[in-house]
Hints:
By secondary structure, the protein is α+β, with helices and mostly antiparallel strands. It has two domains: about 1-65 and about 325-349, Malate/L-lactate/L-sulpholactate dehydrogenase, four-helix barrel (Hypothetical Oxidoreductase Yiak, Chain: A, domain 1); about 70-180 and about 230-295, Malate/L-lactate/L-sulpholactate dehydrogenase, NADPH binding domain (Ribosomal Protein S8, Chain: A, domain 1, 2-Layer Sandwich), CATH 3.30.1370. It has ten helices and twelve strands. The strands form three sheets. The protein has a seven-stranded mixed β-sheet with strand order 2-3-4-11-5-6-7, sandwiched between helices. Strands 9-8-10 form a three-stranded antiparallel β-sheet, with no helix packed on it. Helix 4 (about 90-105) links the parallel strand 3 (about 80-85) and strand 4 (about 110-115). Helix 2 packs across helix 4 (about 90-105) and helix 4 (about 90-105) runs parallel beside helix 5. About 45% of the residues are buried. The mean pLDDT is about 95.
Amino acid sequence: MAAPTCSIDALxxxxxxxxxxxxxEADKATSVARLxxxxxxxxxxxxxLAMAPLYLAEIAKGSMRVQGEPQIVRDxxxxxxxxxxxxxxxxxxxxxxxxxxxxxxxHGLAAIALRRTHHIGCLAVxxxxxxxxxxxxxxxxxxxxxxxxxxxxxxxxxxxPNPFAIGYPGAEHxxxxxxxxxxxTTSMTRQTHAAGVQFEHPWLLDAQGVPTCDPAVLExxxxxxxxxxxxxxxxxxxxxxLALMVEALSQGLSGHGRLDGPTRWGGNVFLQVLDPDFFAGxxxxxxxxxxxxxxxxSNRPIRADRPVRLPGDQAAAGLAQAEADGLQLDDAxxxxxxxxxxxxxxxxx
Length: 349
């Protein structure tokens, strides 16, 4: 079944209908669907509506809660700890960012550590929520139940890829940096394996710690291999440091992590929102960062046909095109969504 081109609104309504039919409360379903579709529009297809069948499977087996509120473990005003009890991660993050932005507008900054969320999706789409409102936002995310990345010098996986992101306002659109402590991600490794191809570079390690291009070593061999840290065999100590940083912020500060031995797919998060008005001021921030952006974009490129871009340029272009012309998902994702829709009695857009 070929995927049709649909408007963003139609895809958001379709996604929300799928989650609602599975029992998710309407506000949560709307939030999750909206952020997944926006992720697709920004070009991050592995974390867009392709996640919906996985989320629906988690709901069906009771691993993602679809009703209820997070527990406030501690709240000092400027800082807080929430227990998400495996509620939808995207909804929890949108809500937490809203609270943090409100507090940052009053005090200059605010931070929230969340434990036991479900999967929080694409970090770039989340920090954009704050950057669109004139704030700077940082997000650090780990899954204490997952083990995909070995510590530098080791052969046994301990970490997840441990993504982190920062978003801040720009002259034309927000700058969105979304990276992780490992060379590639779990989703990309699974996608590469499913396509029956190898990575172009040795981004993984086999169980003996030998670099390999074969994505199968992550989950389809015994003993299993791991994803290499940023820097690879030569400079992987840098990725190792980043992985530890993310774990300290998302697990240490939330008071929940690998020590507790969780077994459910989920996430721990640390988010911080800052208001430039409480520092040198928004005008000063814009002047400095817009000047830097221009210096980057006008830099003489290595290849004349590939000018220097800023993180967020591609996302902004993708969103603009999707809003104007609609969005077409890949056929494999559409077939999976169509099967979910048929099972749940939801009409296709």
